[in-house]
Design goal:
Length: 505
């Protein structure tokens, strides 16, 4: 209780509450505009948050992170265009409801399920806090190194069908973080004689290029569009009663969101599809899924909104981000010399509880805002895409330049923007590069710290937690290899059947 009161005291400041309010409402608006998304907004805002207090900067980013999926449901339901990528499944059942003249029911259900998932995730996070506080001190350098390695492996394996590309991009990210002056030996690494590379490749420059500038280039090179979202009429509270009829689906979906949100590399997409599949298989009316099923809509929105709180668990407890948005938040911690991990729960527990309370408050702010402003957001959806592209371009370059007043950084960011555009055109993932930079840096520091105390390679796993994580790595790789062997055998069997059929003819 004392820690909870201390966290509440941190939030009881006008600047913190203003930041939370701006982040929450801003996240809804950003999520409602197709083509922007929270990653772009957080990337643009990162340089500005570095000059703020840690709690102010983090609550701003948390507001955007936790509320954008609420807003992303609006265009998914009304115009069949997800505002954020993770709202794709919402359109499966939300848009058919709109076509049937039940737009208010679909939007209200989406809000209610999102709130249920968000609060469920936060409650789980708060209940797990004492466990995290006890487990965190058991993680030394070798345990965090192995946990970061497991994170990279999971991120790569999460990209089914693109594992080789994801692996190469993750390795590229690890390589990028090695460029510059070595902080231990003070030798130049991969600078090739260029003085501007001596300070390394800045993570925020890369993030702004890959996410914000690439999206600006994408919007500017695509045909100009102005989505037409019609106003919603009807009672916006109707979905709350209907949600209570499907409490089981909402709870299971939220639980899957929490579990998968804690695992690096899985996140909202996997949680959504598993929740949607569960809801369909256990439904009394599975034939309605994809045609306007309330259970399908609830499963999708509850799952993806439970993930943000769960994704904070590995970030706060181990300092290991599970996806791009938490990797960006990690940089805010580092700038203010607040290091997530085992020491955070011992030295800054008030900050941890302040973030928990901020997540609860932002969900309340967002729901209240949406109940009265949905039709206002339908007007914002109509902004021309090329105008958005120009605004993102300008704000991105302003953000990059403000970091170190360097035109070189702007050119590097533009180069990564072009790379991000190419990867989008080729439908290749961008996230492994960012996580490779972040997790690669953690792995290098922790491995160097652990090596002087190791007499043989087996000493790396001679402690219980280290051995458990190593076992998890081996199991993950073994299960993946088993899946690959099954797929190859199935493909070979299919080819043999096709050949046999051809010979019979």
């Amino acid at each position: 209780m004392e820690n909870l009161l201390a966290g509440a005291g941190m939030l009881a400041r006008w600047d913190v509450m203003l930041a939370l309010l701006a982040g929450s409402i801003g996240g809804v608006i950003i999520g409602a505009i197709p083509g922007v998304g929270p990653a772009v907004a957080i990337a643009i805002l990162l340089p500005a948050t570095f000059s703020l207090d840690p709690i102010v900067g983090l609550t701003t980013l948390l507001g955007i992170y936790g509320s954008s999926m609420y807003g992303g449901a609006i265009p998914a339901v009304l115009i069949n265009t997800p505002g954020t990528a993770v709202n794709a499944l919402t359109s499966y059942d939300g848009y058919p409801m709109t076509q049937a003249g039940e737009a208010h029911r679909a939007v209200s259900l989406a809000y209610s399920a999102s709130f249920w998932g968000g609060i469920f995730g936060i409650i789980c996070l708060i209940l797990l806090s004492p466990v995290l506080a006890k487990i965190a001190p058991m993680f030394g350098s070798r345990e965090i190194f192995l946990a970061a390695l497991l994170g990279i492996i999971l991120v790569i394996l999460a990209h089914r069908g693109q594992i080789f590309a994801a692996g190469m991009l993750a390795m590229f990210g690890i390589f990028l973080q090695t460029v510059g002056l070595d902080s231990v030996t003070y030798t130049q690494r991969y600078t090739f004689g260029y003085s501007f590379l001596s300070s390394g490749v800045n993570l925020i420059v890369v993030v702004l290029g890959l996410f914000a500038l690439s999206q600006a280039f994408f919007l500017l090179t695509a045909p100009d569009e102005s989505p037409d979202a019609k106003p919603v009429t009807g009672r916006m509270t109707a979905g709350i009663r209907e949600l209570m009829k499907h409490k089981r689906v909402a709870t299971v979906a939220s639980g899957l969101g929490v579990i998968l949100g804690m695992i690096p590399g899985t996140g909202e997409f996997t949680a959504q599809f598993m929740s949607y599949t569960y809801a369909q298989k256990t439904s009394k009316n599975p034939e309605l899924f994809g045609k306007g099923s309330a259970e399908g809509l609830i499963a999708s929105e509850a799952a993806n909104n439970a993930v943000p709180a769960a994704a904070m668990i590995p970030l706060l407890a181990l300092g290991i981000p599970g996806e791009a948005l938490t990797a960006m938040m990690l940089s805010v911690f580092y700038v203010h010399n607040v290091i997530p991990g085992p020491q955070l729960f011992q030295n800054n527990i008030d900050l941890v509880y302040g973030l928990y309370l901020a997540l609860i408050i932002l969900n309340v702010i967002v729901v209240v805002f949406l109940l009265f402003s949905t039709n206002l957001l339908t007007r914002i959806i109509r902004i021309p895409t090329r105008f958005l592209g120009v605004m993102i371009l300008i704000l991105s370059f302003v953000g990059v330049y403000s970091l170190r007043n360097s035109l070189t950084d702007c050119m590097i960011a533009a180069g990564f923007g072009v790379l991000g555009l190419i990867l989008k055109r080729l439908n290749l993932p961008i996230v492994p590069i960012v996580l490779g930079m972040v997790l690669g840096g953690i792995m290098e520091v922790k491995l160097r710290s652990a090596l002087p105390r190791l007499k043989s390679p087996f000493d790396m796993i001679d402690r219980p937690v280290a051995f458990i994580i190593f076992t998890m790595i081996v199991l993950v790789l073994a299960l993946h290899l088993r899946t690959l062997v099954k797929e190859v055998r199935a493909h070979k069997t299919g080819d043999d059947h096709d050949l046999h059929d051809t010979q019979m003819r």
